[in-house]
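Worked example 2:
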Amino acid sequence: MNTDIEKVKVLIIGSGPAGYTAAIYAARAGLNPILYTGGQPGGQLTITTDVENYPGYPNGIMGPEMMEDFRKQAERFGTKVRYGLVTKVDFNSTPHKVIVDEQVEIHAETVLISTGASAKWLGLESEERLNGRGVSACAVCDGFFFKGQDVAIVGAGDTACEEASYLANICSKVYMIVRKDEMRASQIMQKRVMNNPKIEILWNTETQEILGEDEVTGARLINNVTKDVSEIKVSGFFVAIGHEPNTGIFREFINMDESGYIKTIPGSTKTNVEGVFACGDAQDHIYRQAVTAAGTGCMAALDAERYLASLE
């Protein structure tokens, strides 16, 4: 390991709307933040095509381009953006110790965690190839593009039901693909989808392949009981089988819920460790939108600024 230890006031772990917004606020406050981008610079928005629901972009913007704008704005105010992956942390004492790429050691007075969450996928080659071309893990983000069209959604939890209902409001028909003969969603959510005439639930069904060359044209399905194979024609295919927060390296020190989302003190971004704050999808399993992530990034920077002021 590199023996040189770098001392910083504000270290931001992870990019994306939360991390970059935190960086903008911290930099403008004269805190000279350093931001490490993580393994996916720009976060989930870099695998999103059109973003039409973020304020300030009346004509929409491509996800990667939007994240580039965020990065440039953070750098304009003095943020040092570095490409690297935090591989280990030690929050037992202050300043907090953070290891990057297993070789750089940083001692930070405050740490802002904005490592986000990753959507769980089915693991199909066609799913990866058509991601952003009809395949999406966010109905609220991308459903609008399939207005008046037939779509499919995979999942059986509350989120899947909620997104199926959302899609039914704007799409002609929604096929809901459920692996078992029952859902794990709450009864009220199950009733909502079962009573919706635009939603057809395909029980005991799994996806063999998503069809289409350059964009989604349908899906090949198999019934787990009868083994019958069938095809449906859809132009949108949504995966709603959950998200995995990228918070594993903090587990030893930071309080989390059973799914790994970081617990913050209500009304703030404070964690159980003084001087460590969490923002964005690493601590938000409810809204998961770029604009809400950016909002909590702002909160984290302000919380960090106030914490540092209290030490003086």
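The chain has two domains: 5-118+243-311, 121-239. DSSP finds seven helices and 19 strands in the chain.
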